[in-house]
Amino acid sequence: MSPESTGQNEHYISVYRRRFRAWRGDRPFWAGLFTMAGGLPIAYFPYADLHLGNMTLAMSTTAGAGSLIIGILLITLGFTMWFHHIVRVFAGVAAILLALISIPVANIGGFVIGFLLSLIGGALSVSWAPGVPQQDGEAQPQTGEAPAGERDPLAKDFPYEERPAGELQPAAVPQQQGPGFDPVAGSEAGGHRAG
């Protein structure tokens, strides 16, 4: 009998799968995939011929070049969502607009298939947000508030101090020491000032 080591001899397919999963998690992967899948029927159908026995149906329209341009732009936007995800909102809005334009131009948006796929891909791209990496063993707060130990750096400029329960109360304001007390100078300046 020989002991088997599971840590050293990992299969290369599982390593590639883990790398692909990490790559896919850092970008709007499904948005790009739906957008590219929507661009294919929009670009293909105006140039396709349907054969029914000896009869050939040509689905080409007068706007075949427009369909091809819309389809190629949608495929390009899908790749942009994958490899340049900083502009994902622009790419999503452009994909939605091109999907809407494809209805009158490209055979009802690639017979509605390309229209729906591009619309879903654009909406997923606009709504995607990158995840926040977790600290070592710390759970991220579910609310939009900062953790209890952290304070807003601008909060020190405001005359509020924090109670132990997290409530804010006005800071103690120095009481006037007499009729001519100047709070800036911190001493009494007499009854009136010389002007």
UniProtKB/TrEMBL annotation:
What residue intervals traverse the membrane?
28-45, 57-79, 86-105, 111-129
Q: Where is this region: Disordered?
A: 131-195
* Keyword RNA-binding included in the entry's annotation: no
Compositionally biased residues, Low complexity: 169-180
Q: Which InterPro entries match?
A: DUF6114
Q: Which UniProt keywords apply?
A: Membrane, Transmembrane, Transmembrane helix
Superkingdom, taxonomy of origin = Bacteria
The residue ranges flagged as biased composition, category Basic and acidic residues, are 148-165
The name of this protein is Integral membrane protein
